[in-house]
Amino acid sequence: MAIYHFEGQVISRTSGRTSVAAAAYRSRERLYNEYDGLTHDYTYRHDLLWEQIILPPNAQAAWQDRETLWNAVELSETQKDNRLAREFNAALPIELDLPEWKQLLTDFIQQQFVSQGMCADVVIHNPGDGHNPHAHIMLTVRPLKENGEWANKTEKEYLCVRDGEERGFTAAEFKEAKLDGWGKQYPFFVGKKKIYMTAAEGEDRKLKRASKYPKCTLYGRQNPIAERWNSDEQFVAWRAAWADAVNIILEQNQIDQRADHRSNAARGIEEKPTIHEGVIARALERKGILSDRCELNRQIKADNILVRELKAEIKRLEKQARGDDKALAGALEQSQNAIIMIRYQIIFNYAQITKMKSEREKTMPIIHDYHNVMKELKPMQKQRASLKKELDHCSPVQLIRKAQLQKQIDELSTAMVPYVTRQNDLLKKLGCKDDKAVGELEKKMESIRSSIAQAEHRANVLDGQHDEQLARHMKLMNRITPDNAAAIDVERDAIRQAQRDVMLQKIYGTYGNLFEQTTMNHAVKITEDIICRDVNGKLYLSHLGKKGNEYLSHPTKPL
Fold this sequence. Notes:
The chain is α+β, with helices and mostly antiparallel strands. The chain folds into four domains: 6-147 and 225-261, 2-Layer Sandwich (BirA Bifunctional Protein, domain 2); 154-222, no CATH class; 284-349 and 446-553, no CATH class; 361-444. It has 15 helices and 15 strands. It is extended, with a radius of gyration of 33 Å.
């Protein structure tokens, strides 16, 4: 199976990003952003293999220049929370070379994006050891008009009424709807309440209009083209189309490998997919700071490697062990070591879950208290700031008003003291310096919550693997008879240490610096206590009794 990776994201100002900065980073160029006056220079990076701007026919020719294109995007978006670009990150088949990658990307982008009216900016990176070739595809999010100008993402939609029915109309649609008796709704004061009604109805009732703005839908009516681009269905279709494009070019080059966009679960694969770590997580790791997401990925990768190795090795040994006492002894040791390895994973995973839950249980109540404090404090801070602003604008002759304002400010300041004290105390407990840091900590806690769910799912998988391996081991044990039991015991004693050393090397090679000898000792002790043999060679649970039987049913629970 060829490696499949095709993930998307949206670049928006909400997250503090710009399309010019993103384009500069991906193209390894130096680009100036006219919107904020910042220059972004990534010319010092040297992993760029290829870059290309691909435009639809109605796009402006000047947009072949990367800086011109993305500045046009930036200047067309006037809101601080605007979406600027869509990006896809795609793994490229390592079985192919640069000419095939260029062909694959050009054809795919032209068919899926540019033909639909998007402008595309594509680059190929191949960093480090050259084993991770991938493409970044940046796309514009505004549809283009026939004249090459940007179309609106949304259009204002007025909520109009007729005979008690409410319906939305754009400005163009309202011209005809008005002739059919539809009327815009405006807010009018009815006592202290604001009630929407038509202008004619409000005038008839001699009510005062609360605002000159008519009632509209919250976000307006989305451009149907942009709406389709933003849909979940379209994203799934693009993922499938990428897999198809990869498979076509692999077949053209007579390569047997194939990509599959479906999840592991959908393909009936027990292995769990890794999660996206992100630049920030990997940067923390390089600084020696453990990232929960990177940590989780290490565990997933470790589990997947061992699952593959165990299945292959045990299958081979089971065939070998038929009618051969020496081979049976080797299979039994390998099988027991397999259980030890799974048990190691179970203990390690349980410890990770416990650690993450403990951190959340300790932190979340403090965050909750902080939000409650700020709920009370922020309105007072806002009011005090407003009073101070008014005080600053008072003329020298407004002595009475200035005294009143100062008194109100002093009273508010006094009332704020216990809240400010509590705020500082909670910030200290959280290890945060300000409100922004608390927000980042809250995001981390949400990430940990997701990681806990992943780890708990992994616990269930390990549970099943443990039960499966115990059953396999029991079948092997049942091949022992009173005649060959002693000989097999001697052979197992002779090879045990060598086999155990191989098993330890596998565990350490997978977990690296995260390997814990105490955890391994615990896994060995539990396994040896559980897997015992009577004089007839039958598997039983030694001295564990009822507790041992419970363990067999729920091996993820610590003894």
